[in-house]
Amino acid sequence: MGLRTLLFLFALGLVYLALRNYLGRGKTLDKQPRTPAFRKTLRCDHCGTHVPSEEAVKTASGSLCCPEHATAKESVGVDPDD
Ligand SMILES: [Zn+2]
């Protein structure tokens, strides 16, 4: 009877270890939450706002956040802030 109990406990331990290993492996296979992709930003030469490069208005003199600032900068000519 004592040996049977011992074998039962041994089998129970093996099941526990197998289950823990199985669950642990499942955890590592979980997909990590994706971090948002880094977006390159450009600084507006007129107001200093940083805008995504694909949304920025690019001119020969530099990059701007919007068409209004592009025309404003061209009409002013020299940036008074700098
Ligand atoms: Zn701007």
UniProtKB/TrEMBL annotation:
InterPro entries per UniProt: PP0621-like (IPR049708)
Entry-linked NCBIfam families: PP0621_fam
UniProt protein name: Preprotein translocase subunit YajC
Organism placement in taxonomy: Bacteria, Pseudomonadati, Pseudomonadota, Gammaproteobacteria, Chromatiales
